[in-house]
Amino acid sequence: MAHKRMHVYLSGGMEYALNEGKDWRLDIENWIQKSLKHKVFNPNVASDQYLRKVLHKNNFRSLKSTNIETYIKIVQKFVIQDSKEIATRSDYVICYWDMSAQRGAGTKGELTIAKYFMKPVYLVTQVPKEKIPGWVLGCVTEFFSSFEDLKEYLIQNYTSTH
């Protein structure tokens, strides 16, 4: 009997993050696919694909000040897409919590959805816990101070039984 392929959602700052958070997501996505063979939902990839279809050469972030109606419609699409991905397809969530995640709102919403649907949330952060909002702390299953520590945990917990 074949095992269901595990799915992971990569949560963390985008709007206020350096390079929209693409660098850390690409690194962990490649590692997960190679080491765990899990399917990865990377919101950077999904949003880039959608934006190429609807905006062509326009700068998405500039729409916030030049065409707020279009900007909101696009963000609404992302909210629905990402929420559905966590609620219906993801088995667990990896969150990179830094100042960009703290400044934005999407990561907090994603963690709330994961908690509500009882999906484990693995939070990688160097932010002291007392500086992380209580709501976020209430959504987290395990904390890690580095991606190396997270990888060790994932290998121990997702290779022998999944």
Give a structural overview.
The chain is an alpha/beta fold. The protein has a domain at 7-42 and 90-158: Response regulator (Rossmann fold). 52% of the residues lie in helices and 14% in strands. The chain has a five-stranded parallel sheet, with helices on both faces. Helix 4 (68-89) runs parallel beside helix 6. The mean pLDDT is 94.
SSE map:
Elements: E1 7-12, H1 22-35, E2 39-41, H2 43-55, H3 63-66, H4 68-89, E3 92-97, H5 99-103, H6 106-116, E4 121-125, H7 134-137, E5 142-144, H8 147-158
Helix pairs in contact: 4-6
Strand order of the largest sheet: 2-1-3-4-5
Total number of strands: 5
- What is the CATH architecture term of the domain at 7-42 and 90-158? 3-Layer(aba) Sandwich
Radius of gyration: 16 Å
Strand content: 5-15%
CATH superfamily of the domain at 7-42 and 90-158: Response regulator
Proportion of residues in helical segments: 40-55%
The CATH topology of the domain at 7-42 and 90-158 turns out to be Rossmann fold
CATH class of the domain at 7-42 and 90-158: Alpha Beta
Secondary-structure element order, N to C: EHEHHHEHHEHEH
Distance between the termini: 13 Å
Number of helices: 8
Described by strand count, sense and barrel closure, the largest sheet is: 5 strands, parallel
Uncertain stretches: none
The residue-averaged pLDDT reads 94
Assign an overall shape.
globular
Structural class: alpha/beta
